[in-house]
Design goal:
mainly alpha, ABC transporter involved in vitamin B12 uptake, BtuC, 326 residues
């Protein structure tokens, strides 16, 4: 089978997987619903299942799909930007900045939009700090950006530890849940879905240039790519995608690291197909992980970040051993 045809087939299968993951999320829970009742509720029928589907499960599933897609897309972009298959959205300190903002909001007694707003401000501040420090006197390299991000992330981690130390005991549980990733307190789905659509709309027109950048900056420059401008664009899109996901769902790891790896193994490194495929696969993975988090020890709900870590660690170790053997 030709490589492009195989890639398109994988993309179609991922779209089906995304729809299936959303369907499972609507049916599964402490109260299991048959497909017929879910379908009737989606069509607007006045059934007992309607508030469960439309008010509880559907917003959470759509928010989870958007956040997973944002994290996977950001991971794919960061791996191209840094030319490092181990690059991850969180390595640049964006998650740490969002964590500082969210925990400060909780410490001040804010909730809902207040937590989301300060979380986004923290993520944006961390992004601007990393980019400003890495840019310095005008020189800008992948290594400098990576090291600056690691240092800023470490500083944010120290501030998070300080906030947890001084926080009242009754607020610690909510703070820890947010830090481990939590979709149970999603305030709205419009923002993450719009962020995912915008990130794809911005990144996809530059997919050909990203293919050249993945081969090396010198080769891309020789072929007419405006590498400095493209790097800034990729960094800001990836950082804002990460900020939008973290603001909505808290700190969720490994999605941006392992999903682009797995998709790349299936369809290759053509960014025109890899970026939408990563978004679909990341969204499906997070929706399924959140469904497990809601049901595995129901009625108790686990932080979804715990599930993604339990899935991501063995997959990452397998990929690492596979590349070492090669």
């Amino acid at each position: 089978m030709p490589a492009r045809r195989r890639a398109l087939l994988v993309l179609a299968l991922l779209a089906v997987l995304g729809a299936a993951s959303l369907a499972v999320a609507l049916m599964a829970g402490s109260i299991a619903l048959p497909p017929g009742e879910v379908f009737a509720a989606l069509l607007g029928a006045d059934t007992p299942a309607r508030p469960i589907v439309l008010e509880l499960r559907l917003p959470r599933a759509l928010a989870g799909f958007a956040c997973g897609g944002l994290l996977a897309l950001a991971g794919a972009l960061m791996q191209v930007l840094l030319r490092n298959p181990l690059a991850d959205p969180y390595v640049l300190g964006i998650s740490g900045g969002a964590g500082v903002g969210a925990l400060l909001a909780m410490l001040l007694g804010l909730a809902g939009i207040g937590v989301a707003g300060l979380s986004f401000v923290g993520a944006l501040a961390a992004m601007l700090l990393v980019f400003g420090l890495a840019h310095g006197d005008g020189s800008w390299t992948q290594t400098r950006l990576l090291l600056t991000g690691v240092v800023v992330a470490a500083g944010c981690g120290a501030v998070v530890a300080l906030i947890l130390t001084v926080a009242p005991e009754q607020k610690i549980h909510g703070m820890l849940f947010w830090l481990m990733g939590d979709l149970s307190q999603v305030a709205g789905i419009a923002a993450p879905l719009a962020a995912l659509a915008a990130a794809l709309a911005i990144a996809l027109p530059f997919a050909r240039e990203l293919n050249l950048l993945a081969r090396g900056a010198e080769q891309a420059l020789a072929l007419g790519v405006a590498v400095p401008t493209l790097r800034r664009l990729v960094y800001f899109v990836a950082a804002l995608a990460t900020a939008a996901a973290v603001t909505t769902a808290g700190s969720i790891g490994f999605v941006g690291l392992i999903v682009p790896h797995l998709v790349r193994l299936a369809i290759g490194n053509d960014q025109r197909l890899l970026l939408p495929a990563a978004a679909l696969a990341g969204g499906s993975l997070l929706v399924l992980a959140d469904t497990l988090a809601r049901t595995v020890v129901a009625p108790v709900q686990l932080p979804v970040g715990v599930l993604t870590a339990l899935i991501g660690v063995p997959v990452f170790l397998y990929l690492l051993s596979r590349s070492a053997k090669r």
